[in-house]
Amino acid sequence: MASQAEENYLKALFTLASDSGEIGLSDLSEMLQVSTPTANSMVKNLHQQGLVHYEKYKPISLTSKGKKEASLVIRKHRLTEMYLVEKMGFGWEKVHEIAEQVEHIKSPALFERMDELLGHPKIDPHGSPIPDRNGKIEWKSYHKLSECKPGDSIRLVALTHSSDEFLQYLNSKRLSLGLMLQVESVETFDGNMAISYLKNHREILSAKVCEKLLVEKE
Q: H or E stretch including 25?
């Protein structure tokens, strides 16, 4: 059974994996804010447990076992976030730090019950997919708001970034998942977008913000 530190590494490796599934050691150490030798030592440990593929001076990748272990940690995290929002009334900007602690609890029964009480949700409060009990993830293909054009009618369905600061910013703009948006105009120079929603409420969103908002076209 993986330790809390090992679970954090597995989750970081899963998050960093590109289409090829390969991760650089420097990227891992930067994400976890540890030294490269410290990260290298842990990766060797995970390799010995059959959780990662590791060769000196080559990119790292998760094994099938490692991917499943990482997915199950992510499942616990995202179920916890959903439970905190749906059953306990927490704002979506308040749940990440709590879930970071709860995700390390070694009690499958607790999370199965949480899943049942929530009605087996497919996504967390930020629109990210929740892995099933076997670690399988149902990925959906969304568009970035920044890819949309004037006249497009779209629904806000997920975020690529869910820091507390960004979520508070979205709250201040009254933006939430499920909201229908209308793209009014796009600035050619800087990519800023004029968006209308909620009965003629209008906002100018920066290109940086639009890159982080995922939408479905109607």
A: helix 25-32
